[in-house]
């Protein structure tokens, strides 16, 4: 009887709750300069099919839409380099607002959405949030977007000098406006910022040999088949006798963004500007 009693009166194990993860947030994708909605079909499909995102909405932008920016030529601020995003880019911000509204309508109560901005779409997302509000947006992920913040330990993360030969502010003041008037891209629990930087090719000066920056270089030649580079002196390998024509060409693009040609980047935007 004692044995039977002990068997039947043994304590019942307390169930341990199994933690559950919330489903991925719906996403609104902001196209970059010159891109259209169709360019992001593969990205949207991958988010849905491989990562379980319920909805990935791309803003309705076509390539011809970007010709609307020519209206800025009539604004005196364009020629003085002090152009503002509005009203020149109102058409883009309105398309983004519709995509954001659609993504929000597909979110669970209290879930919020994520914004993914490619290239110029990254800093235009900051303009959008400044003008239309942050409500319901939990994350801004930017892909190859030129942000401009001056950190004392990273000399190239500064706006390009105003009077350097060969440097032209291609945004005609728009990036300066974003830096001065939009909320800083600072990671907070309420709104998280993630910047993804590409390291594909290092640029070079147009004339003469570039001296590789120690914090910016890896190995000579091909980097595992994924990128081109100039040797880091710490690797004890000889540097190329002269940069390639391609590196010089790419470097001129980098120079327009950060004021330096001999830095790393994705071929369009230097890595040091994605902070």
Structure, described:
- With 275 residues, the chain is an alpha/beta fold.
- It has 2 domains: 23-196, Rossmann fold; 199-275, no CATH class.
- The protein is 26% helix and 12% strand.
- The protein contains 7 helices and 9 strands; from the N terminus they run H-E-H-E-H-H-E-H-E-H-E-E-E-E-H-E.
- It has helices at 2-8, 41-49, 76-80, 90-105, 120-132, 174-181, 245-258, and strands at residues 27-30, 56-58, 113-118, 137-143, 192-196, 201-202, 221-222, 228-229, 264-265.
- Strands 2-1-3-4-5 form a 5-stranded parallel β-sheet, sandwiched between helices. The chain has a two-stranded antiparallel sheet with strand order 6-9.
- Strand 1, helix 2 (41-49) and strand 2 form a beta-alpha-beta unit.
- The longest helix has 16 residues, at 90-105.
- It is globular and about 60 Å long.
- Residues 1-13, 149-158 and 213-239 have low confidence and may be disordered.
Secondary structure layout plus pairing:
Elements (H helix, E strand, L loop, with lengths): L1 H7 L18 E4 L10 H9 L6 E3 L17 H5 L9 H16 L7 E6 L1 H13 L4 E7 L30 H8 L10 E5 L4 E2 L18 E2 L5 E2 L15 H14 L5 E2 L10
Parallel strand pairs: 1-2, 1-3, 3-4, 4-5
Antiparallel strand pairs: 6-9, 7-8
Protein traits:
disordered N terminus; globular; 5-stranded parallel beta sheet; AB_hydrolase_fold; GPI inositol-deacylase; 275 residues; Rossmann fold; two-stranded antiparallel sheet; alpha/beta
